[in-house]
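Hi U.,

Before I forget, here's the chain from the pilot set. I'm dumping it here mostly so it's searchable later in email.
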Amino acid sequence: MQDPVRDRLLTELRGLRRAPGNPSIERLTDKFELVEALGMGDTDRAWQRLDRLHEQHGTDPETDIGAYFYLAGWNVGRDTLDRRIRDYAAQFHVRDRTALRRGDRGALKLAALIRDEAETARPWGLVTLFQSGNAVDVIVRLMLGFESWRPATIRVNGNDVSDPQFTIHRNPDVEGNYFHQLIVEGVELDLNASKHSPMATIFIHWPMPVWPTWQTVAYVADPLILVRTRTFRDRGIELRLEWSREAPARDCGPLMTDQRMWVERTGPRARAVHEGRAE
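Structure:
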C-alpha cells in the first residue's frame, strides 16, 4: 500500500537505528515525522511514547520489533549498528544477514504501528446534514492525500447509495489533496418515529488502510430533532436524526422548515458547505 507518511517514518526509524550508544532523546532531534506522529510536535512526548512502544512490543529480541529495538541499541548500547548485528547473531545463533532482515521487518511493522496511531496527516471525512420540513439533504465529503485508498460504502436508511466508481477529484485549494463527494437530496424523514427513534440514518464505512477521522456538521431547522453520532472501530460512522418527543412526529404538527436559519437555500449542490478542519 502506498503511504508516503509511513515511508518517511520508516526512513527515520532506520536512521535512528544507526546511531551509536544507548538510545536517548537526542536521537529524535532531526526526526520530524517521528516527533509529529508520536508527540504531535513535542520531542519529550515523542520519546516517552517510543519508549512505551519498546516496553509494549519490543522487549523480546527474537520478535521482529524486538530485533529492531535491539539493533537500535535499547539496553544494548555499542558504538555501531554492525557491532550490534554481530552481537545479535552470536547471542541468538543466526547469521548476520538474518539479524538485519529481522530488524528490517521490525522497523516496517513499527512504522505501520506508529502510522496507525498518529493523530495527524490522516484521511478524514466530513458529513453535512441540512434538515428542513419532512426531508434532509446529506453531503458526504471524503478527503485524502497521496496514500492508497479504498472506496466507501454509504447507506441512507439501509439503502446503498454509494458511487460505484468512487470518483476522486483534485482539491484545487490544497496541494496534493483529493476528495470524493456524494450528495443525496430530499431524504424523507420517518414521521412515525417516537422518542429517540431514528427518523433517518446515514451510515458510512470507509475501510482506508489508515483509519480516517470524522467531522459532522448538522443544520437542523426543527428543534425537536436531535442528531446522534456514533463511530466504529472498523472505520465507520453512523448519524441518526432522532425525534425527541414521546408522541410520534406526525402527531406534533408540521416540522419546521429552514426559513431564516439559512436564507440561501438553493439546493445542496449550490449551497455553501462547512469546510470542516483538516487534522
